From TrEMBL:
Keywords: ATP-binding, Cell membrane, Membrane, Nucleotide-binding, Sugar transport, Translocase, Transport. It comes from Microbacterium gilvum. This is Sugar ABC transporter ATP-binding protein. It holds the Pfam family ABC_tran. GO terms for molecular function: ATP binding. Gene3D superfamilies: P-loop containing nucleotide triphosphate hydrolases. The keyword Transferase does not apply. The lineage of its organism: Bacteria, Bacillati, Actinomycetota, Actinomycetes, Micrococcales.
């Protein structure tokens, strides 16, 4: 890294930045200083204003007040193109590539170098391969972006930032959809970019990775700056206290519940290429954890049980009655609900109101009781907004205007509003801040105590072990172990998941 002039201004500085959306004040006083050669974490509860801060930096939002400087010069980006030209690149949780275009075409979108005859494809391809080489990744540059995993799509975005020679990289929850190994690969790349002298802003709800990767951390609360400290001078407890301004209660408030009759019975379920001969039961009052590595077949199994995907053999029963395969509507009528892991794509319609979004899946039930009015919709939604503490300015606010974590809760509310007998949750606390995780756990525990059967997929081992009465471990499409709570130690689960 080139030696830095100690008197040089920071690469990026925000000072008391203000941003409102109509009546909603998203940023009251956001401040942030980024230095070259540093990985800087930005933490805060859901709705604290992290993504809005990113929006200001990226030219998506225009600030209403405060200062924004790059290299000591005041800037005011009117577009994302202006931010890009100033050396800023943003990597989002869900990369925004064009699915039908190739990797190369995406990287050079709108700025193809010209050769003698039209666009110089060879030069573009060589440049992409050079950058991939530098990043130490192997991705086929001719593949359409659609065919890539989320992790690879993020790397394509990073490669794009490098070809643009971005000096400031902003990553808004980049790891929330990645497996452990994919996240590790991303961190290796982030470290090499840092050593290169770039400034990186890293947003995450996962403290382990923040302490592993970042050197500095800024805490935000309610749209305002709280503190910036070197990572070595703080602890998780201190950060959490600064984020929430209060003490956080126990993270896994598991309560004992009477276990009743079988609600879900899955027998011999097979979907070729995804899972094979899977049989298990979930009983009333029981939380069954479904552990396993990413790709072991857990989400595919959940989608088949709920009828989103078809299966090739086997049977799904709820309360003793067979559920028609491949028909989510039938599953909902049978009393099932599925909170999918990919909630951006399958969860919400951004333009739909909070009230309608929550009441949507419960419509059948509301209509049967003769209640399908917007009043009923609002009443049902209001109850869940309160119970899940969803931060929305109004019930008729579009879901797309909520923070990422609040949108996640809207999807959870939507499924809970159907009053299911069996609730399948796939990564229920993904994207939810650390302080609110305990609330989601408390809710799941309370629902089980009220007699609901819960099947919980989670890649967070402590969450599975903390909440489940029984842990099923999947490996390569099969149930490799069925462990009662007492036997479900981290070692036992990992051994079953890896076959080690
Ligand atoms: N386009 C918009 N219109 C109205 N309100 C908005 C808009 N964008 C954000 N907000 C509001 O601004 C506040 C801050 O949201 P922001 O997305 O910045 O939070 P965040 O810190 O990124 O949270 P999370 O951890 O959940 O992603 C929230 O109350 C949100 O509802
Ligand atoms: Mg956000």
């Amino acid at each position: 890294m080139p030696a830095r002039d100690p008197d040089a201004p920071p690469v990026l500085e925000l000072r008391r930045v203000v941003k409102s959306f109509g009546p909603v004040v998203a940023l009251r006083s956001a401040s942030l200083v980024l230095e070259a050669g540093s990985v800087h974490a930005l933490v805060g509860e859901n709705g604290a204003g992290k993504s809005t801060t990113v929006g200001v930096i990226a030219g998506v939002h225009r600030r209403d007040g405060g200062r924004f400087e790059i290299d000591g010069e005041v800037v005011d980006f009117a577009s994302t193109a202006q931010a890009r030209d100033a050396g800023i690149a943003v990597i989002y949780q869900e990369p925004t590539l064009f699915g039908h275009l190739s990797v190369v075409e995406n990287i050079f979108m709108g700025r193809q170098p010209r050769g003698r005859v039209g666009i110089d494809r060879r030069a573009m391809r060589d440049e992409v391969l050079r950058v991939f080489g530098r990043l130490g990744v192997r991705i086929d540059p001719d593949l359409p972006a659609d065919g890539l995993s989320i992790a690879d799509r993020q790397i394509v975005e990073i490669a794009k930032a490098l070809t643009l020679d971005a000096r400031i990289l902003v990553m808004d929850e980049p790891t929330s959809a990645l497996s452990g190994a994919e996240a590790e690969r991303l961190f290796a790349i982030v470290r090499s970019l840092r050593d290169d002298g770039r400034a990186i802003l890293f947003i995450s709800h996962r403290f382990a990775e923040i302490f592993d990767l970042c050197d500095t951390v800024t805490v935000m609360r309610d749209g305002a700056f709280v503190d910036t400290v070197p990572i070595d001078d703080t602890t998780v407890d201190e950060l959490v206290a600064a984020m929430v301004g209060r003490d956080v209660t126990e993270l896994y408030p598991k309560q004992a519940a009477p276990i009743g009759e079988t609600v879900l019975r899955v027998s011999g379920l097979t979907r070729v290429g995804a899972f094979r001969d899977v049989s298990f039961e979930v009983r009333s009052g029981e939380i069954v954890g479904l552990a396993g590595l990413v790709g072991s077949g857990r989400s595919a199994l959940a989608r088949a049980v709920f009828g989103v995907d078809r299966y090739d053999a086997g049977r799904v029963e709820v309360a003793g009655a067979a559920v028609r395969p491949g028909a989510p509507a039938a599953a909902i009528r049978a009393g099932m609900a599925l909170l999918p892991s990919d909630r951006r794509r399958h969860g919400v319609v951004p333009a739909m109101s909070v009230a309608r979004s929550i009441a949507l899946a419960a419509r059948g039930r509301l209509a049967r009781s003769g209640l399908l009015t917007s009043r009923a919709e609002r009443a049902v939604s209001r109850a869940w907004v309160e119970r899940l503490r969803i931060r929305a300015s109004a019930l008729d606010a579009p879901v797309g205007t909520l923070s990422g974590g609040s949108q996640q809760r809207v999807v959870l509310a939507k499924w809970l509003a159907t009053g299911p007998r069996l609730l399948i949750v796939d990564e229920p606390t993904r994207g939810i801040d650390v302080a609110s995780k305990a609330e989601v756990h408390r809710l799941l525990s309370a629902l089980a105590a009220e007699g609901m059967a819960v099947l919980m997929i989670s890649s967070e081992l402590p969450e599975v072990l903390g909440m489940a009465d029984r842990v099923l471990v999947m490996r390569e499409g099969r149930i490799a172990a069925d462990l009662p709570r007492d036997a479900a130690t981290p070692e036992a689960v990992i051994r079953a998941a890896t076959g080690g």
